[in-house]
């Protein structure tokens, strides 16, 4: 088991791209949690890529990994049409306005939803699937964190 | 907080300017001919698979040579990526002089760049290993990120030829 | 053939002639004598700067023996995840599959996997085969914790955790890990989770303005004006706290609110109440005074606040009849 982890680290010399907030303390030391773990009701993953087949394969990989880790899987879907960014130019160098060529960049989208993750599960899962992100695919992970109301909002203020 | 109010809109507009490719300064000519090859009278012009399919087949019969997220919708730093790709291509065709038989494929994953190509077996393996290390080292110094070369070798240039026209 | 033969003959005759001349000129120079036999053809001599040894050392490129592809030595039951452990471009010599890729005219076979750039271009998932995924998931499963008991449904966790904070992470193929979009924070909670009195609720809704959705009853704060996520989160909570506490403050000018400033029709403060009382207590003594019933008050408020519709008018009619004790 340790060897597998080592191989995971060794074969992928990539920097992990999650942004500023990081509750890595909970992920690395599950035995003595210093503070209570966060709760995430939903993890929504948006994938963007040029090739829909690659996105499909990646979705299959992520959902399979979620199944193995025991994460509840929500709706996975993709819009029917890709986003087209078009640019129209004259076909000839100088004149002939009626003859144009059109160039376009297509961006395919795909969405995945995962529900009910604890903070450590989310970190583990997200890091695993982000590390295995294929080239030319952008990932956006929106996390819905559950929090208690702060104490000063639970009761109406006595004096104002 | 007030100074942020002043600074942030300016920074944001600058960011937006950098993101959107509003200006096109490249030449617009040759877009009808580029990537298309004429038939010779003797029918002896060798074409690779990449050359045999004109650009409008990208995404249908052949795929892209650069894989990155900058070209996608809301992708960051598209211009820098394009310039870097051009530089990498030029550097590799010059370093592996007369050895590259195919297009140079540049794949960007996280912060690593993986470069794939088909190379002719015209030099000894020792030289090849030296060139691989040399290219990786210099490119990773210039790009400030790890660069990996993943080459495939062929015995002869004719191996990559798809058809003659 | 004939022409060749004649040319050969001519040259042999010429050489014999030259030999004859040479023998006659023997007296003049030794060098000439040595050079004579070389340029027996009628050609210019070639100036050869290199010696013969250098010419002979023409370098022959020795091709080294190329190893046969690795696939031929692979066992059938090998551990594939050891062969292909990480993301890598396709290499035909290490994938023992008879792959073909490419479009050809009808009838021709697609190009094979050797020297096929198309296969190298497309991102492959050869390192993420189902056994590899299972193996890796088992290895990382020890870092996962189960969802706590008692919070199974949304209604249950909403009771303890009413506040929702939405943040997003971005993963792009860039040399930088920063993304300006990642600073955005959205916090959501239901208005019913906060405790208000009537005045405070009214003032709070005025303060938050567009951030409150009347249909769903959700309060949403989106902040993106600070450069980092932590600051934006703090700012969102600050906004919520400030609005909540400010709504309990009663300013001195709020007492001078006239009837024209009221946002809702209140039966207690209006002419309708006085008229109804006047009708009910007509000619009544001071002790027997009655106030109009609450049903009437409600129907009047409803009629003016919600507007005239069939139901409100019918109800108002009913209440008026009841108030005046008219039987139809």
TrEMBL record, chain A:
Record localization: Mitochondrion
All residue ranges annotated as the Small ribosomal subunit protein uS10 domain in the record: 44-142
Gene3D superfamilies: Ribosomal protein S10 domain
Pfam families named in the record: Ribosomal_S10
GO CC annotation: mitochondrial small ribosomal subunit
Record-linked PANTHER family: MITOCHONDRIAL 28S RIBOSOMAL PROTEIN S10, SMALL RIBOSOMAL SUBUNIT PROTEIN US10M
This protein's name: Small ribosomal subunit protein uS10m
From TrEMBL, chain B:
Entry superkingdom: Eukaryota
Major localization listed first in the record, in broad terms: mitochondrion
Pfam families for this protein: MRP-S24 (PF14955)
Alphabetical keyword list: Mitochondrion, Ribonucleoprotein, Ribosomal protein, Transit peptide
Location relative to the cell: Mitochondrion
GO BP of this protein: translation
A single cellular component GO annotation: ribonucleoprotein complex
Family affiliation: Belongs to the universal ribosomal protein uS3 family.
The name this protein goes by in its record: GH19088
Automatic annotation (TrEMBL), chain C:
Record domain Small ribosomal subunit protein mS35 mitochondrial conserved: where: 178-247
GO molecular function, one term: structural constituent of ribosome
Any single GO BP term: mitochondrial translation
InterPro entries recorded: Ribosomal_mS35_mit, Ribosomal_mS35_mt
A single GO cellular-component term on record: mitochondrial small ribosomal subunit
Name under which the protein is recorded: GH16988
Species of provenance: Drosophila grimshawi
Gene: Dgri\GH16988
